[in-house]
Write a structure and sequence with these properties.
Strand content: 5-15%
Largest sheet: 4 strands, antiparallel
Number of helices: 6
Structural class: alpha+beta
Distance between the termini: 78 Å
Shape: elongated
Length: 201
């Protein structure tokens, strides 16, 4: 028995349903893409995947944002003059003139970025080993990590905030991602938490 061919109306209806499903899936991927970019950055930083980090981070923009926050250091005292402290002035003249390492550099390493995605500063936070091999172990580990919450969503810019577990509601690190393509997002700004008493950046 030969099945009757689809009528034009039925074919159009099926095509419309298929098109609607595709559009809904594309919309869901577009909305969720920044979250996947954050998770990819965290995973790449954990395993020192420099190439992946380079694709996910706009380093000049992030460096500029961090430098502006870290350059609020107190002004140091003037060096001793030869009239006030001859020995101190001579000692300073003989020291090498190598500039100190910029504070921002340690934030832009894979370890520094991974610490930031967990709500900590570079060199802070509990030490973690390599990712578990089993999927269930990875899920169990991920449930113990701070989960980024959406602070702002726009078609071209998204902000997440990460609360450190033991840091309270005041200890928040903010990540701003900017859309660079239909489904491509890059980190362009990191807002560091306020430094409280006894804390150092």
């Amino acid at each position: 028995m030969v099945k009757p061919a689809l009528t034009l109306g039925a074919a159009v209806k099926r095509f419309s349903i298929l098109l609607l499903v595709v559009l809904l899936l594309a919309g869901a991927v577009f909305v969720a893409a920044p979250f996947f970019a954050f998770r990819a950055l965290k995973a790449a930083a954990r395993v020192d995947d420099v190439q992946a980090i380079g694709e996910l981070v706009d380093f000049p923009a992030v460096r500029k944002s961090l430098t502006a926050q870290l350059d609020n250091a107190p002004v140091t005292a003037e060096p001793p003059s030869i009239w006030q402290d001859p020995l101190g002035a001579m000692k300073r003249a003989l020291e090498p003139l190598a500039p100190p390492e910029p504070k921002v550099d340690r934030y832009l390493t894979p370890a520094g970025l991974y610490a930031l995605t967990r709500g900590y500063g570079p060199g802070q936070g509990p030490v973690v080993g390599p990712p578990p091999e089993k999927a269930l172990d990875r899920l169990a580990e991920a449930s113990k990590e701070p989960i980024p919450s959406l602070l702002y969503w726009g078609p071209n810019r998204v902000r997440f905030q990460v609360h450190r577990h033991e840091g309270g509601l005041d200890h928040v690190t903010i990540f701003t991602f900017e859309r660079k393509g239909p489904f491509t997002w890059r980190l362009v700004h990191v807002g560091l938490p306020k430094v409280g008493a006894g804390e150092a950046r």
